[in-house]
Amino acid sequence: RSLNDYQLKRPRLARLEHRLHGRMSAVLGNSRAVTAQLLAEGVEPARLGLISNGIDLAPFAVAVDRATVRDSVGTGRRDLVIMILANLIPYKGHADLLTALAGIKDRLPPGWRLWIVGRDDGLGAALRQQATTLGVLENMRFLGARSDVPALLASADIAVSASHEEGFSNAVTEAMAAARPVVATAAGGNAEAVTDGVTGFVVPVRDGQAMGRALLTLALDPELARNMGAAGRERVARELGMEECVLRHERLYEAVLAGRPVAEALSTAPATPAASEPRAGGAD
After folding, report:
1. According to the model, what pLDDT value does residue 278 have?
2. Domains in the chain: how many in total?
3. Are the beta carbons of 79 and 112 closer than 8 angstroms?
4. For 21-29, which contacts have Cβ atoms below 8 Å and span 24 or more sequence positions?
5. What does the pLDDT look like over 56-75, one tens digit per residue?
6. Quick check: is 281 in a domain?
7. What pLDDT score was predicted for residue 17?
8. pTM as predicted
């Protein structure tokens, strides 16, 4: 299950879910942030398991002609490219990202670009107006929903997740699979996916200044960005690949059929989050 923020708007659904918890042989969360909520909702620890989203690494192993991709979206071959992969929905934090970029725009390399990749669910016009007010509209490229996300990530330099809430972000793990450093808010499982200071930076939710500092640090230190991206790719391949995800599901089913505790079979410790602490983020 994802985070339970939706229950605030649907109290009847929350009551139904709480009743169903006691009837389930197993209840799964995709991050420690989620399993902590499930524990608080009364799920028995023995029946609670953690299986993070798995990712197919094959599409991210294909060679990409960065110049061709950049040319296709009106971006210079040497421009710094920051990319956010998220549908245009308020809780995805696009407005916070624009505020962050406005605060550092004069210190970023000339010609920098922000690629906004995702379906417009009605927020696009407001973001364009905000960008105009902040003086960053000319740096933005609204690319819409795309089927070539691995190629876009491989052609970008830095990935961002500015979300206010997340269970376990596929966008973050996809960026890591593409060997991009990630600046992510400490929302839900983001702080579990991104190892702060190693595969990217974790910053507080809705903190544009911290996000801006983290982005600027990576923008001004390409070697650091490359090293963090490589570390992220290594971590995804080691811990978050589809094979590992399938293996954990197999162990889950075996435990349920044998009547063994799910948590023990998955070797999880859902009550003890192992997440990165958000930092103020990078250079001044």
Report:
1. 62
2. 2
3. yes
4. 25/256, 25/262, 26/252, 26/255, 26/256, 26/262, 27/1, 28/1, 28/252, 29/1, 29/167, 29/270
5. 999 999 999 999 999 999 99
6. no
7. 87
8. 0.89
